[in-house]
Each structure stands twice: as C-alpha cells, then as structure tokens.
Sequence to fold (208 residues):
Amino acid sequence: PIAMQLQTGVTRKSHVRARGKLRSAHRPPALYVVGNSTRVHINDQRSGKLFLVDTGAEVSVIPYSYGAHQPSDLHLTAANGTRIKTFGPKTLVLNLGLSRPFTWTFEMADVSRSIIGADFLHYFGLLVDVRRQRLVDPADKRTVTSAVTATPSARTALLAVARSPDWDRLLQDFPSVTRESPVPESFRHGVEHILETKGPPLFARPRR
Fold:
C-alpha cells in the first residue's frame, strides 16, 4: 500500500523589533488542523473496522483486501501526486454509533486504511468537529466521539479521476454486484447440502 504524504505545520520564527532590540516571535503552524492529533477516527460497530474521517479526501475508500483484486479504470491521486490504483466499488452498511445506518458505496483502493471522505459527509450532511474530536449529525444533534486521539496520521487528500461512463452504467444496472450479501432468513429453493457420517463424532482432548 502507498504511504500517504504527511503534511504538518512548521513553526517559523520572525524577528520583531521592540524597544530597539530584536526578538524572535513564534508563528503558529500554518497547517495546524492537519497535525498529528486532530484527525477523527470512527469505529463501524457492525464490522469493528476503524475509519479515518478525512474532509480532504474527495472519495471514500477501503483497502482492496476487502474484495476483488482486479484493477479498475478509476485512479486516485494522493497529496504528493502519487496515483493510487482502485479495484472497483463495494457497498457497505455502516453503524457509526449515530441514530441511523449509513449505506455507502466505497472505492476499493491500494490504501492502508479505510477513509470516510467528503463525498460521504456531504451526502449524509455530517459535520466534523475537529476541536472536540467528534462526528456530528445535525439531523438529530447526535454525536459520536473519535475512537483514536493523538495518533499521527498522514494527509490523504484523495482526488478522483473520472472512470468510463460505460462502467458506471453497468454497475447501476446490476447494483447487487457491489453490495454486501446478507444471509437470507428463507430460501426460494429446496436444495440442501447434507454430509452423511457414520459412527460417533471425532474429538480430541485439549493439550497444553
């Protein structure tokens, strides 16, 4: 997986003349908001997976180990200009600890972590409270606190490059291809898989 570019603020000094003397004055970091301790991470209570909430990422992504390994024609660009391969969309239903589930189609990509990007936040109207380290749902004022604090994190700034419209139309015609397949409560067929065994079941005593 590609190591994302880390962009943090740099403390600079400037000389200020006061009462005939030069003294050094510290300026605040120019990019303080994307420092080491201001990223918001939210747990999906359904899967236990940790998602980085990144408003600088244009597209929401998950590591491609979740599913297919066949590269798609959509490419993402990291903050340092590196191109990131994608492997198609996958729809997940997230439980972020708020009052409603969130069904979203993520891009499987060559990244090391799952990222909730600006597309997800914009669609569901969620707000990121960086100072209080939480995610806010204005619909009912519910909030969920970041699962991780003071953790170094790279600035992702994932930018999307448009894929072929034929590919998008094909996925719209067959939405079940990219969605999770829950186990149905009842089946529409009478096919059963049976393993016939004879004799008592085998077992072994635990050993230390």
User: Anything to note?
Assistant: The CA atoms of residues 56 and 66 lie 23 Å apart.
